[in-house]
Fold this sequence. Notes:
By secondary structure, the protein is an alpha/beta fold. The chain folds into 3 domains: 39-116 and 465-679, Calcium-transporting ATPase, transmembrane domain (Up-down Bundle), CATH 1.20.1110; 120-146 and 321-452, HAD superfamily/HAD-like (Rossmann fold); 151-317, Calcium-transporting ATPase, cytoplasmic domain N, CATH 3.40.1110. The protein has 26 helices and 18 strands. The strands form 3 sheets. An 8-stranded mixed sheet has the order 1-18-17-16-2-13-15-14, sandwiched between helices. Strands 3, 6, 7, 8, 9, 10, 11 and 12 form an 8-stranded mixed sheet that branches. Strands 4-5 form a two-stranded antiparallel sheet.
Amino acid sequence: MGSTIVYGRGEAVVTSTGMKTEMGKIASALSDAADNLTPLQKKLNQLSKILTWLVLGICVIMFAVNMIRMSVEGDIHLAGVLDTFMIAVSLAVAAIPEGLAAVVTIVLSIGVTKMSRRNAIIRKLTAVETLGCTEVICSDKTGTLTQNKMTVVDSFGVDKPLLAQAMALCSDAHLNDELKAEGEPTEAALVNWACSMELNKNHLETGSYKRVAEAPFDSERKMMSTVHTDPEGGFVQYTKGAPDVLLSRCTSVLAPEGVRAMTEEDRKIILAENKKFADKALRVLAGAMRKYDSVPSDSSPEALEHDLVFLGLTGMIDPVRPEVKAAIMECRSAGIRPIMITGDHIDTAVAIGKELRIVESADEAITGAEIDKLSDEEFQKRIKKYSIYARVQPEHKVRIVKAWQKAGMITAMTGDGVNDAPSIKNADIGIGMGITGTDVTKNVADMVLADDNFATIVVAVEEGRKIYDNIRKAIQFLLSSNLSEVVAVFVSSLMGFTLLQPAHLLWINLITDCFPAVGLGMEQGDPDIMKRPPRSSKDGLFAGGMGVKCAIQGTALALITIVSYIVGEIFENGAFTFTTSEDGMTMAFLTLSMAELFHSFNMRSLDKSLLRTTGHNKILYGSLVGSFVLTLAVLYIPFFRNAFHFAHISLAEFAIALALGFLIIPIVEIQKAIERACRK
């Protein structure tokens, strides 16, 4: 169960069941791999704890301060206690950014939609953010870095038609009605090559060269053998496989004078030709044959694959995807290290790696066999030395992922086979192939590539960075806005007047905070976003001085709001008397609402001037207009104005409140200018 037979014939014998089967081992590896929290999830959890304790602390302190003041004044009564309690509640409402969870979820969801349009299908919402801090991308070669369109371009051997016949018959690809090969890409390339020499694989196999036995391809032994009827009499076996492996099974060679014993000189020449092909980034396969008088009684690999006659080598190329070179360069400029993982010969892998600028020399490549010789500790010490892993088995991928993770790198891993599932599950970002990937691989992946293209991974990383930047903008906007409410309410309560009621604060948090925060999440991102190094996954949400910025901006907003209240009371009473004023409360509400809307435009970039921000954010513009209209409705529609206990303020009061709110823009512009000067 869980296996699909795609070629070959045989007898199935049950040797084990359940967790002892190969599928069971994979299931065990998947269950052992923990679902780790993303960096953003960890930071938001920390922020939640901080805000929880902050709110509780503020409420307790505020309640205690007012109770002490009332006891000193000798004026403790139930109404006063209830008022004190409501002030504490006001501070709690002011401190909690109610829209944060909604904003983060909406921004991530929209990011997922954008990625799907560009062939990156996100299966786990939180993976979007993790992509933004990816430092290593481990990618398969075939089909991801290359086009997966193999073509034979070179060969070595004294009898090219015989070599082509051997390679075509020892395969499971076949020709369709248009004489184009269908099947596994490598085998299809061999069948097409034979067809170009008028050797029709279909006719050969149904005619004089009927297949009578076979030892199917196996990735462990890297070979395949088939036995056919021989029109010259008897039976002939054709074997194809990795040159280094197949050569060790050959005792003879087809020379110009005929079949003769293989010498050490022959082996050196063959290996030199193999290296020459590999250095040209060709995938090399060797072909061999063996003759029998009768059908072999045992068709196991051990019985068939020895005492072979070497026929020659074929060199085929899988052209690199044209867009991958630019994607690799973009990775480099973004501080992301691209890693190639392949089952190909190390020389072929290095040649392609050099072409794509993944490596500069063969010293940066290692084979699976060499990895097996290293302990986990030794491999860990040397992991950063290598950018190419050749001749690897799926089990090597798990070691590679874990070693990079232990080195402190956020690692993405691609895969398509069932055996790739554990490494994909263990990676910080598991990437499945949408075209060639198995269902198991897609199900455990965080992201699926609809086009199996490396460049799509880079697109997803860029989008992930934009999303994280936008989430940080929204968080800074929300926290500075909420801090301003806390400071303003706290100071006003100490001064003996009510600046804003809990309902006013809740309205501001849900209307003039949430909508602009969602708009900030729709920003297009800085043009140089892929020229910055990946952020550290250890960086907190307040990295880069964000905590200080929130404090400065929050305090500025609070002072502006308090000034607006004072102006309102002066308009109402002719002087500031430290008493609760409806005009003052109304002006404070309008100023804080408008100041937060204006402040959202400051947050379009965390460090650049508002005048230098590029692109148009229609969602943000719309949120500004919508929030402004709703605020006017609350202030000037009698039903809502009375419900919120607001006064009908004059046009002069309205203009002053609006002007005070606008002050936040030049204040933050000055702050940003000072920060830029300090960085320089």
